[in-house]
Amino acid sequence: MSKMQFGLGIVTFFAFTALLAPWLAPDNPNAMALSQSLEPPSQAHLLGRDENGSDVLSRLIYGCRISLGVAMSVSFICGGIGLLIGSWSAYLGGWTDKILMRFVDVFLAFPGFLIALAMVAVLGPSLRNLILALCLTSWASFARLVRGEVLHLKTREYVLSAQALGVGHLRLVVLHIWPNLFSLLMIQVSFVMASTLLSEAGLSFLGLGVPPGTPTWGSVLNSGRRVLSEAPHISFAAGFAIMSLVCGFNLLADGLREFLDPRRGKGAL
Q1: CB within 10 Å: which end of the chain, N or C, has fewer?
Q2: Would you give the DSSP letter of residue 36?
Q3: Largest alpha-carbon pair distance within the chain?
Q4: What is d(CA 112, CA 90) in angstroms, rounded to the nearest whole number?
Q5: Number of other CB atoms surrounding residue 95 within 10 Å
Q6: List of residues 6+ apart from 69 with CB closer than 8 A
Q7: What's the rounded Cα separation, in Å, for the pair 232 and 40?
Q8: What's the pTM?
Q9: Residues 95-151: pLDDT tens digits?
Q10: How far apart are CA 158 and CA 152, in angstroms?
Q11: How many angstroms separate the CA atoms of 198 and 123, rounded?
């Protein structure tokens, strides 16, 4: 089995888990049973209960929805913004390119997680603010990547031929250049999804992600941290879920890059 197939299998598993959460979760993720708090894994509760007596497996299944939803939203929004800015910068060139790229450099110069942390701390914890903060830190990598590829593509023969035939700028970019960016963007989307999952989990772990009480992998990890010596199964389950999905996206991206590389099989260094 190739890396791409293995990664795709992991991502597909978690995607179906998120979609079918109401049917797969054995219990209400917010239901409490304080008399049974920190109950170890058993046949009735496969991953045990947390400090509030909530079923850990149910919280992880519903948390998968939040994590994947945030990762997909951020990746595709940033991909769209980066595609527009990167294409505009590379195609027009000159001062437009210089100004836009210096703007991109400013965002790339700061640690993305710290910017997201500061934004969410100021705006307050909510799903919308979380997505906004993560988008602010992720779009620049897309713009830089697209700009470099468009600079190469706009010198290709088919683009120059289209220009010679009088094809308009918008039509030229949308119909002749953008289709050749699809594979590159899909690889970058997979990598950004993995990093977004970690950022979302980190912010939720700090209590700055979604509102308190909402089941997320980061909040489950945080609740397990407080009782790590008494109930290590809580942190282990949440950490394993985060690690598995991040590895799945990274393997998928790495496999896609190898599969879509035109030099594969030619012994390219």
Answers
A1: C
A2: G
A3: 77
A4: 24
A5: 8
A6: 18
A7: 9
A8: 0.87
A9: 989 999 998 998 888 888 888 888 888 888 888 888 998 998 889 999 999 999 999
A10: 12
A11: 20
